[in-house]
Amino acid sequence: MSPAEEPDVLHILWMNGGLSCDGESVALTAATQPSIEEIVAGALPGLPPVALHWPYFDFDSGPEHARDGFIQWFHRADRGELDPFILIVEGSVPDEGNKDAGYWSGFGNDPRTGQPITATEWLGRLAPKATAVMAVGTCAAYGGIHAMAGNPTGAMGVPDFLGARWRSKAGLPIVCVPGCPTHPDNLAETILQLLYQVGGQAPAMELDEALRPTWLFGHTVHEGCDRASYYDSSDFASSYGTSNCLVKVGCWGQVVRCNVAKRGWINGVGGCPNVGGICIGCTMPGFPDKFMPFMEAPAVEPEYAPLVRTLRGFTLRIAGG
Ligand code: SF4
Ligand code: SF4
Asked: What phi and psi, each to the nearest 5 degrees, are found at residue 249?
């Protein structure tokens, strides 16, 4: 019996068949607090044994076993043969009913017909059987890039598809870890917390109104930004390449909830405004349309900066975040 077949194993089914760039899968390879290797190797105390079925490192998806070995875990979950399992969805959910023929996004084939099974159909089949569902990345959480105005796919987030008040069979809400891409350690840490929670080792995590963990998304970028003292002294950059506050070149950090400026990107290093990039609001419902154009901010005088913050607060509320 392989370790993944042991009866007390908690399975994680990672479906990256939605509309995405696989950015969350790439991000997870950079996580260090904890690393995904520590999670699957059982190197953390109290963690239940885990079998991760993830295209990025599942051996069944390699050339020796072919992709059918990987997809069988999804069929087994669909037949009710895997319990418990956590379903992680990467990528937005297209509206497969908005056209006469074809499909927007598939994930494996139906063994009876040889035809693709859509990612949307998998989500509809597996979500009711999952102990918990995670939507990782802003595409899966809120629609993201593919939900921009004019996109023909009708893309939406997992909470749009299942319902924002949806609960798993264990009574758990959808957990969203947005970001474009999501922060590596925010992602790994939330997976870890959910594993502890499902394994009875941790209390239910607190989520905000956009289904984000509050300990990660409870504060604004501005509150953790290295440049905040420049803002306080009304010392604003008018171009890139300086160390002062970027609000006048388009930074949304005052109203965007994200811990990247405080946490850094990898091993505490980086974080958008800390290293010279404006915050474009990628963790927010309504991103990107509600935050565009990215690099045009009103050319305000310092005394009007609080007004800009207030107006951006209105936008934030309209965006629902
Ligand atoms: S760069 Fe952005 S987040 Fe940083 S202090 Fe300025 S407005 Fe705030
Ligand atoms: S600081 Fe802004 S742009 Fe950077 S990851 Fe956070 S929300 Fe996205």
From this structure: -105, 15
Return the ligand 2 atom nearest residue 252 CA: 2
Domains and CATH numbers, the chain: 3-216 (3.40.50.700), 221-319 (4.10.480.10)
Instruction: Kindly tell me if the per-residue pLDDT of 150 is higher than 80.
Output: yes
Using a 6 Å cutoff on CB, does residue 221 contact ligand 1? Answer: yes
- Burial letters 242-278, b for 16+ CB under 10 A, else e: eebbbbbbbbbbbbbbbbbbebbbbeeeebbbbeeeb
Q: What is the pLDDT of residues 162-194, one digit of tens each?
A: 999 999 999 999 999 999 999 999 999 999 999
List, for residues 303-313, the tens digit of each pLDDT value.
Answer: 666 676 676 66
- Residue 57 has what pLDDT? 76
Q: Which residue carries 């990256």 as its tokens?
A: 16
Q: Which uninterrupted H or E stretch holds 10? A: strand 10-15
DSSP letter (8 states) at residue 6: S
Residue nearest (by alpha carbon) to ligand 2 atom 8: 282
pLDDT at position 6 is 72
Q: Residue 44 C-alpha to ligand 1 middle, in angstroms? A: 36
Strands 132-136 and 106-109: unpaired
Span from the CA of 246 to the centroid of ligand 1 (angstroms): 6
